[in-house]
Design brief:
Largest sheet: 5 strands, antiparallel
Number of helices: 4
CATH architecture of the largest domain: 2-Layer Sandwich
Low-confidence stretches: none
Structural class: alpha+beta
CATH superfamily of the largest domain: PAS domain
CATH class of the largest domain: Alpha Beta
Number of strands: 5
Number of domains: 2
Length: about 170
Amino acid sequence: MALTMPAGETESEALWAENQALRQQVADLHAVIAARTHAEQALRDSEERFQRIVKATNDAIWEWDLVSNTLWWSEGVETLFGYTLKEVVPDFAWWEDQVHPADRARVMAKFRTLLASGAGLWSDEYRFRKADASYVHVFNRGYIERDGDGTPLRAFGGMRDISERR
């Protein structure tokens, strides 16, 4: 590497200045690595906390990405409804098919109205089909996340079996 020196600067002064610049770059990289490591650990901690909360509840937690129409379910879908996670089709149509036929039109109309209205909170009670083809009464509560223009991006929430209450 050729060393270029400003006029009036000795070679050792130029080396010292270059050394200092390299040391600063290394220090900056260490700071970036430390910040990234801290952020990654915080993300892992957050994910672990979320997983513990999901396991602690008896609800079936769900998240629906409205852009990709992908629906994620927690393990609660297994404990409440008897479906294995492999049996659950990860899209909105699968959920809609499990809503009791006598409740489906009302539930879907309410949900479509919510999406069009700009509102954020949704809740409803209806019957949901279990893996054994029986139905349970559920309370489903969710939240719609929207972009700055009000377009719905995703929904997330939880379903609780309220059959005993009913």
